[in-house]
Every structure is written in structure tokens, then in C-alpha cells.
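Revision sheet: C-alpha cells.
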Amino acid sequence: TTADAGLWRYPNGLAAYQQALASNTTTAMTADEIHAVGLREVARIEGEMDAVLRSLGRREGTVEERMVALRKELQPPAEPDPRPMILARYTAAVRDAERRAQSEDRLLTAAAEIIAEEGYLACTLDRVGLRAGFSRGLASRKYGSKDGLIEAVIWRVSDLVNGQVDRAIEGTDDPLQQLLALFDSFVDLALHDTSVRAYFVLFAATIANRLETRSVFDEIERRFGARIEALVVAAQARGEIPSALPPAHVAFMVGSLLAGVSIETVSDARGQDPHDLSVLQQNLRTMLRAALRG
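Predicted:
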């Protein structure tokens, strides 16, 4: 036995851990870099907790000690039976969260529809609220500004795409097949999903008009590009993609192809026959596979 914990202490453990990172995450960071991020996040969160606790008049002791004391004070008395009251509070909180989630979904769906159909300028907070079936002011109260609403739309699309990719590659160990599944999933959404079309309408507007949302797009592209690159590295390790090709360049090519297809379909997809779109998707996958294998 040993007090040392971690895969690193086994033969080739570090390499195995790096492979696990590449296969199961979207990051291109090393284990040490991830650990450093974790330490920074712990310090940041504890700093925020300390500020909140001090605002409540709790200044003595460590953050952990003050949290323990707070939990004890919030613990309801044993008599009378506190369970009905606790269940009622949690039920009300869950219902409130469900209502807020439903209203947010309707607002973001309405915003994406307006953007996809009429463009960025047509998407006003008043129009989004009315199209979602709410008051004119709800979108403004919820997001604060049009930029806040647009950022929410962008992040929602990012979650949608990554979730679809996760489901597509589930149960597939072959990194090249995972990469092709990622490509297929993205193209399928670009061809058929209104919110993804709205994303690329916004992307084009951001480039043309230097909108404040550019930094959000940059971060999403960085994360998705890192996910593609990790699959390229894994496929190269198995000899499925020529190792002479720089992984970053291959990832750039795949990402550029996805962006190009998506922007083209913004104006063309709705006017094409569904069968033609299916054939297009199959042919794109075939061409990508051939290009990757060299």
C-alpha cells in the first residue's frame, strides 16, 4: 500500500491519463495545467464565499468553520416534525426553477427564430418577449440588455451542439469514428436546427459589425477546436490520421469546413430538398474521411 494516489504512479500511468483526458474531455490542457486551474478555482470560490459570509456578519474563523456553524444554525429543530415544512420548501423551489427554466427556453427559442428568419437587427427584447408569449419587458428583466440575450442564445447553442456530439460518440472508442460522428452531428444541426442557423447569422453579424459578443464566440470556438484537436491527436496515435500533419492544422481544417457549411446553409438549406441534404451530408463525411486519411 501507499499514501500516493493517482494513475501516474503506475507504469505508463501519465500517458494513460493524458489519453483519458483526450478521449473524455474537450480540453487540450495537461494534467498539471488542469490541477493548477482547480487550485485557482478553489481559491476564487473560497474568496467569494468569504465575502458573502462577511456580508452576513460572519468574520471569525476559516470559511469551512463558518460554513459548519451556519449549517448548524439553519438546521431545523427536531420537534415538531420538520419534514413536511422542508418538503414543502423544496417542492416550491423546484416548481419555481421549472417555471424559470421553461420561460428561459421559450425566450431563447423565440430569439433564435427571429434571428434565423430576419437577422440580428430584428431581434429586439420587446419582440422576443411577445413572440415567446410573455410581456414585452420580461426579456429585458431577465437578460438586462440585448447583448445579454444574444450571449445566452450563443451559449445555449454551444450546449446543444456539445450534447448532440456526446450522444453521437457514446459507445464508440475509435477516435476517428468519434471525429466523423462529431462532424456528422454538427452538419445535421446546421442543416436542420433553427438555433444553429441563428448562431451563424449572429457569427456573421459579429464579424461584420464588430459586436461585443465576439469574445463569446472566440471562447466557444477555442473550446470546440480543442475538442476536435484532442480527437485528432488520439486518431494519430492509432495510425488513423497521418502523424506528419500538425493536429492544430487538422482541427483548423475541420472547424473551418464546419463553419463554411453552416454559413452556406443559413441561406440555402430551407430551399433544398431534404433528400438532397441527406446526400450532401453523406458526401461531406466521405470527403472528410478521405482527406483525414491522406
